[in-house]
Specification:
mainly alpha, about 70% helix, about 280 residues
């Protein structure tokens, strides 16, 4: 007990009996580096401020070693660091985790110049299976800060596809079908889009909705190089809603795939007439 009191600067504490609560506190500190809040209050009441400082420094060092080893800090550990104003370790932990996530999501940053925000928060959300702000993703893609077919974008597309598919199942609102299908295609999973759009269109009243479903279904067929079924869907979509430009752009793309560039130009011209 005397040795521990000397080590942790508590020699002014007069009681030297091994039955003292301070002995238990110092043994705990020596063994596990962590002292409970209740025991911190015990030390505070006895004005053992230097002991508290040493205990806090020891625990902070333990947390830093945990970060260096590649482990993630728990919410309670981060809260402790905030309460004890150790933002340096929190920042270090974020940077370390950011580096790990950049590798996982293949985010190229050879000079370590990529800013922590918004990329770290984006990847944290993806890790938690939380949806991203679609406008932010589009903006980053347009600024060439994210790849349209990179791992972050693909993860985002999958989350959106799953969200709209679940919304369709939950609400029965069929306009979620082409939206979900479009995201499955962007996520490079056209088979999921085909599965979702395999419907009896006779049960749908709105002609423009039928057309939208057929367009995304036809595009999914095109993704897997089934141009026959892709064209069938595109032509049927035109029948249902001839004023929409989307089936015409699909027909233009299909024509280009076939090497029929003149026909493709004609289809694209029709799409432009309708607002494409």
């Amino acid at each position: 007990f005397a040795a521990l009191k000397a080590k942790y600067k508590a020699i002014e504490f007069e009681d030297s009996s091994p039955s003292s609560h301070l002995y238990k506190v110092l043994k705990q500190l020596d063994l596990e580096n962590k002292v409970s809040e209740q025991d911190i209050n015990f030390l505070r009441k006895r004005k053992l401020t230097e002991t508290i400082r040493i205990a806090n420094e020891k625990y902070a060092y333990t947390l830093k070693l945990k970060v260096e080893s590649g482990e993630l800090l728990s919410d309670s550990e981060i809260d402790w660091l905030k309460q004890n104003q150790r933002e340096d370790i929190i920042t270090f932990a974020k940077q370390k985790h950011f580096t790990t996530l950049k590798k996982k999501y293949a985010l190229l940053d050879p000079g370590n110049e990529l800013p922590l925000e918004p990329f770290y928060m984006i990847m944290l959300k993806l890790e938690k299976q939380e949806r991203l702000d679609p406008l932010l993703v589009v903006q980053l893609i347009e600024q060439n800060l994210l790849s349209r077919d990179g791992k972050i974008a693909i993860a985002h597309y999958k989350l959106e596809a799953d969200f709209y598919e679940q919304e369709f199942k939950r609400t029965g609102h069929k306009w979620n079908i082409p939206t979900a299908s479009s995201y499955w295609r962007k996520a490079d999973e056209p088979e999921r889009a085909l599965q979702l759009t395999n419907l009896d269109l006779g049960n749908i009243r709105e002609s423009n909705l039928k057309s939208a479903i057929l367009v995304t279904r036809g595009a999914a067929f095109r993704d897997i190089d089934d141009l026959v079924n892709a064209e069938k869907c595109a032509r049927k979509a035109i029948e249902f809603h001839s004023e929409s430009y989307q089936p015409y752009t699909l027909m233009g793309a299909i024509s280009y795939d076939k090497g029929e560039y003149s026909k493709g130009d004609d289809w694209f011209a029709e799409a432009i007439k309708r607002g494409a």
